[in-house]
Amino acid sequence: MGMPGGFELFAIVAVVVLMFGGKKIPELARGLGQGIKNFKSAVKDDEPSDNITSANKIEENKIEKETTTTKA
Questions:
Q1: Is 3 a domain residue?
Q2: Where is the composition biased (Basic and acidic residues) (predicted)?
């Protein structure tokens, strides 16, 4: 199974236009674009918290090492 050819792509586009109508397709594409944009911004906002979490784990490890060395 390879990539669809020209006729297959034309048939798929024709079915989509018949199902949704010419006016609805731009709205669907706009909604899809906004969804992708929101997803990318959410991923971008989430990245700094990973760095903070790593810093917190390092601090916790330091505290654990200090408490174990003082007990001995």
A1: no
A2: 57-72
The total number of structural domains that make up the chain: 1
Name the token pair of 57: 């784990």
**pTM listed for this prediction:** 0.43
Taking each continuous run of H as one helix and of E as one strand, the counts in the chain are 2, 0
Summarised one tens digit per residue, pLDDT across range 29-54 is: 899 999 999 999 988 887 655 555 66
First to last CA, the chain: 67
Q: Which of these, 26, 7, 29, 32, lies nearest to 15 by C-alpha position?
A: 7
Confirm if 4 and 12 have CB atoms less than 8 A apart. yes
Whether the Cβ atoms of residue 30 and residue 22 lie closer than 8 Å to each other? no
The reply to whether 67 falls in a domain is: yes
